[in-house]
Amino acid sequence: MSEQYVYYFGTDKAEGRAEMKELLGGKGANLAEMTNLGIPVPPGFTISTGVCSLYYRSDRTYPDEVRKQVAENLDRLEKEMGKKLGNREDPLLVSVRSGAAISMPGMMDTVLNLGLNSSAVEGIAKNTGNTRFAWDAYRRFIQMYGDVVMGVPHEAFENALNAIKREKGVGADTELNADDLKKVVDSYMSVYERTVDKEFPQDPIEQLWGAIDAVFGSWNNDRALKYRSINKIGDLLGTAVNVQSMVYGNWSDTSGTGVCFSRDPSTGENYFYGEYLMNAQGEDVVAGIRTPEPLSSLESANPEVYKQLVDIKERLEGHYRDMQDMEFTIQEGRLFLLQTRNGKRTGRAAVKVAVDLVNEGMIGRNDAISRITAEQLDQLLHPMISPKAKKNLEPIARGLEASPGAAVGKVVFNAEEAELWASRGEKVVLVRRETSPEDIGGMNVAEGILTSTGGMTSHAAVVARGMGKPCVAGCKDVVIDESTKTFSIGGKIYREGDFITLDGSDGEVYAGTIELEKPSLSGELNELLSWADEIRHKAKRVGIEDGFMVRTNADLPQDARLAVDFGAEGIGLTRTEHMFFEEAKLTSFRSMIIADSLQERVDALKPILKLQIEDFRGIFRVMDGKPVTIRLLDPPLHEFVPHSETEVRELAKELGANVEKLLKRVMELKELNPMLGHRGCRLGITYPEIYDMQVEAIMTAAVAEARMGIDVRPEIMIPLIGSTAELEVLRTNAQKVINRVMDGVDVGIDYLIGTMIEIPRAALTADLIAPHADFYSFGTNDLTQMTFGFSRDDVGTFVPEYIEKKILKFDPFQTLDASGVGQLVEMGVRKGRNVKPTLKAGICGEHGGDPSSIAFCYKAGLNYVSCSPYRVPIARLAAAQAVLNR
Ligand code: ADP
Ligand code: MG
Ligand code: MG
Q: 3-state SS of the chain: helix, strand, coil percent to 5?
């Protein structure tokens, strides 16, 4: 037997099922499923997605077998309906609809009323007793066929229609009678012939194959390609084609068409939400030609049909166990369903619906956890414009949704202004062509960032996401003129100081201020995440603790606080150098850097010791009872001194140092490859007094807080270890300082000394290092950099192109490269635990907040992941999903 390419669905029985989405597309599979459920669906058949891929592989032609099966199924449809395509007496009309496995609303094409020609239109007129209806259907068909199949511009038809309306002196289409519509058809025919240079096809079979070609062809139109690339949809066979008998919402005043959702797709409320239009067909509802009625008024207008619809909605939701998005048509008071699918929804609705469905007993907690995506959760973790407010707003421009959340502020055009205005207590939005590292300060104080060039991985986008700051990037309509401190959009001018509002979740830009909603883990979201925690905490782990934990990367007490509120269970990385950049410490530290003798250096470090003790105390207090990993100084000293001669001269004055000497010292500190140079533990080896000071600060702070009754759990982390001896020396040094601090102290501190595994050699020799480490923390940023040999700071110049050319599937600094870098992580854990079975292991690179990297970490046996405070809820969810998918 030959392969089945075409699947029939009839009045009460279908060959397909909901599970066959890959093959029948979502629309086709669900039409089949509804048919089998006994829900009224107009009969038809689905040409499989496999045919789409055959069509493209065989140079836009079909195997004979496909043509044969289409003919057979058309025959069966005509028999079942008792009508024939193109028949003069009682013609069958069909729609030809697209539908891929993953829904891409509005991206591909559909043709309605196919089968009409000059004789069928008479048949319809006679049969319905409604001549006007027949000619209206015909003109719609010519327009749609012309547009979708032959590419006749929409306006050409619009103009022809308007001319006739003007002639008759009417405004609405509904005011045209049958004779007027006949004229419209004539006029459309000439538009068609003029543009296509061929007559409008009268043979319904020719029409049918034209439409099938167009639907398959629309799989690769620009819109669809773009949609798939934005939504990262790959590896699909193609679209299916559904040929379905028509029902007519435009038959009469007791007919109509609508769309509805079983729950509100923007809030998730359990409220039957929808819109409909009487005496209208298909796309009229979404096209916005007439204003549709809310579904609630159908209840009074036609209680019978409304009740049926409610009943079907409930059955479908119960059957699919998810919120449904449905299309329906009423023909002469009879209800038909034309589509159902799991409805697209906002993050907020996703969470509410999932939690409600659990509480209604429709799905289990694990299902709820699995259904929410990181992107949906992300939407909820930033201030946002309420979906209600959004409905009444018109954006002035649209760019890329580079970093989610909304921001309101006054326009400023450079980082210095941003900082200046912010210091006066003003809220600003930084508007630039593109940002660069010098703008960090301004970005940091801005509410949000808007750039006119650059993509999703541009500096602005990447930094904004890291800061958890809203960003709209690459907004091409925004034309910036820095000289006049203005920007314009389509000729309209916006000045420095004008308020604008950005929505980084969808890339929209609005004029003026819009009130925002603050994020919080309230209600349903908290409930959902607590279920996720339960799943994670039950996960069995090797090492010293059970459960797959989520920690945060936080350098300041307020960041730690935020993270704890978001559910962080510890700190996986405190970068002590961030504390050094504060003015007071920076001056002392710079004196230390230029000092000549050990004693001078020790003296210069003393004021920093005091300040670091305060920093650590603040963090320990917030993290009461939770582990706090503190990394000793990591960056090269060169990063702490100014680079230009004028700046060095100024600094010399400030420090009371000799200019020549300082210039010489700055030169000495310069390195060709600072990231591979004198940094991390290498500084600890050559300047032991720096690490000694930091360890002293950590332990002194711990003792002070422990005395106040705080449960402190410091974990001292030594960065950039490449050989065992480095760790041996540094651990001994640290131990000496600890012994000194703890000498005679009456409180005990549970501390650990561990290392980062971020140099490939450390992973390779993890068994040799383990005896000297209480824990391993994988620094996957450096580990990725060194494994690929990609400079993290320069990847912007080629990685985007690598991804475009499919040399890389994704940016390895965003998603852990499981097959390469991942081997080193797995090896590090395995070798380490071979020697020390209780070795605790975690990850503190950026990857700790990335869902697929989290899944990898779970498989690799890590005890925890650590990520920025704003990613903590996402990591809690993703960690639970990793445990469930095991
Ligand atoms: P999309 O995927 O863009 O929603 P559809 O294939 O669902 O496209 O069709 C577009 C519109 O035409 C929808 O409103 C749909 O309900 C309507 N439609 C499609 N097929 C039929 C049919 N056989 N009878 C009546 N209306 C139809
Ligand atoms: Mg549809
Ligand atoms: Mg590192």
A: 50, 15, 35
Q: Report whether residue 338 contacts ligand 1, using a CB cutoff of 6 Å.
A: yes
CA-based angle 751:755:761, to the nearest 5? 165
Two structure tokens written together for 779: 């620094």
* Residue nearest ligand 1's atom 22 by CA: 246
* pLDDT (0 to 100) of residue 287: 58
Ligand 1 in contact with 26 (CB < 6 A)?
no
Concatenate the DSSP letters of all residues of 568-616 into one string.
--SEEEEEHHHHHTSHHHHHHHHHHHH-SSHHHHHHHHHHHHHHHHHHH
Angle between helices 659-669 and 583-594 (to 10 degrees): 90
* Ordered DSSP codes for 77-95: HHHHHT-EET-SSSEE-EE
Residue partners of 139: CB distance under 8 A and separation at least 6? 161, 181, 184, 185, 188
| Ligand 1 probe mutation, 133, 281, 327, 330, most atoms within 8 A of CB | 327
Residue 439 near residue 432 (C-beta atoms within 8 A): yes
**Whole-prediction pTM value?**
0.83
Q: Is the pLDDT of residue 327 over 70?
A: yes
Say how far apart CA 684 and CA 384 lie, in whole Å: 45
What is the spatial distance between Cα 599 and Cα 596, in angstroms, rounded to a whole number?
Answer: 9
Cβ 110 under 6 angstroms from ligand 1: yes
Kindly identify the ligand whose nearest atom is closest to the C-alpha of 329.
1
pLDDT value, residue 386: 83
Query: How far apart (Å, rounded) are the C-alpha atoms in residues 807 and 433?
Result: 29
Task: Give CA separation, 794 vs 537, 799, 817, 884, in Å.
Answer: 39, 9, 18, 37
User: Nearest 5 degrees, angle CA 715-CA 849-CA 528?
Assistant: 105
Strand order in the sheet with 486-489: 478-481, 486-489, 492-495
> Predicted confidence band at 654 (pLDDT cuts at 50, 70, 90)?
confident
Q: Which ligand is nearest to the CA of 328?
A: 1
Question: Does the beta carbon of 379 lie inside 6 Å of ligand 1?
Answer: no
Q: Which ligand is nearest to the CA of 675?
A: 3
Instruction: Dump strand ranges (E) for 587-692.
Output: 627-631
Q: How does strand 324-331 pair with strand 293-294? A: unpaired
Res 456: pLDDT: 67
Catalytic residues: 459, 844
Q: What are phi and psi of 794, to 5 degrees?
A: -120, 0
> How does the average pLDDT of the chain come out, rounded?
92
Distance CA 623, CA 869 (A): 13
The first and second tokens of residue 10, run together, are 């009839």
Which pLDDT belongs to residue 388? 81
Question: What integer is the mean pLDDT of 429-456?
Answer: 87
Whether residue 239 has its Cβ less than 6 Å from ligand 1:
no
Ligand 1 pocket residue status of 836, Cβ below 6 Å: no
pLDDT score, position 466: 62
pLDDT of 649 > 60? The answer is yes
What is the Å distance from ligand 1's center to 371 Cα? 27
Give the model's pLDDT for residue 774: 97
- Amino acid identity at 180: D
Model confidence at 226, pLDDT cuts 50, 70, 90, reads confident
Which of these ranges, 108-112, 172-176, 736-740, has the smallest mean pLDDT? 172-176
Amino acid at the residue 13: K
* pLDDT given at position 594: 86
User: What is the band of 345 on the pLDDT scale with cuts at 50, 70, 90?
Assistant: confident
Distance spanning both ends of the chain, measured CA to CA: 40
Task: Measure the CA–CA gap between 299 and 206, rounded to whole angstroms.
Answer: 42
Nearest CA to ligand 1 atom 16: 282
- Do residues 832 and 770 lie in contact, with contact meaning Cβ atoms separated by under 8 Å? yes
Best residue among 110, 147, 286 to mutate for probing ligand 1's pocket (most ligand atoms within 8 Å of CB) is 110
State the closest ligand 1 atom to the C-alpha of 107, by its place in the atom list counted from 1.
3
